[in-house]
Amino acid sequence: MTQTLDDLEGEFASQSGEASGWVRVAASTVMAEYLLVPSLEGLSRRHPRVHVELKVDDRLVDMVRDGVDIAIRSGTHTNENTVVRQIGTHGRRLYATPGYLKAHGTPEHPDDLGRHRLISNSGATQLNRWPFIIDGQAVVITADGCWRADSTGTTSQLALQGLGIARFAMLAAEPLVRRGLLVPVLPGFVDEQPVPIHAVTLGGRHRLPKIRACIDYWAEWFSHEGDLIR
After folding, report:
1. CA 119 – CA 182 distance, rounded (Å)
2. CA torsion angle for 25, 31, 32, 34 (degrees, to 10)?
3. DSSP state, residue 36
4. Quick check: 63 and 200 in contact, CB under 8 A?
5. Best CA proximity match to 202, nearest among 85, 27, 50
6. Alpha-carbon distance 185 to 32, whole Å?
C-alpha cells in the first residue's frame, strides 16, 4: 500500500511539475546536525512543498522497516536492492578548541598525542584508529580516549567544550574553524583518507520527484561545501 501511495504521489507531482510531500532521511548525528540541518533552508526555498523528517542515529537503519526514503551514508555500499548515488566526499582531521590548545599546548608531532586528552568513540571504534603520514609512511595511532561517547555528535560536543582533541569529519568541522571555534591539529601529518558520501534509496524510489529533488539539491550543496574546505 505504501509503495502504491508513493507511486500515485510521484505521478501527481510529475504532472503538476512540482515535487511535494514528506521525505524521511536517515543520517548519522554529525551528518544530520552539521550538514543536513544547515542545508534545509535552501532546500525549502527551492522546493517549498517538500518536507523533511530526519531520523538521526549513528547505526545503520533498516530502510524498509523504518520507512526511510533516503539514507545518507559514507563509504562503500553494495546492496543490490538499493540505488546509490554519490553526492560528495569527506575526510577527517584532528581538531581542538583554541582554549584547549592554549591551556595544554599544541602538539607538533603525532607522538605528542600521548600527552594530551583525546576524545574517542565507544560506539564506532574504527574511528579511534587515527591515520597519519610520518616520513612518507602510513602510521595508525589508536586513540585511547580520556573522554568517550557512543555518538559522533556527542564526541564533537566534547571537543567543542574544550575537553580535548577529537577526529572530525571535515565537512562538519571546517565551518566551525571558519568561525574560530576549532583549530586543526597536526594538519601536516593527518591522513585525511577521503571517502564518498552516498544518498541511498530503495530500488525504484529514486525516481519519485520529491526524492530526486532532495538528492539533486544535496549533491549541489555538498559540492559547494566541499569547495569551501579545499
Report:
1. 14
2. -150
3. I
4. yes
5. 85
6. 24
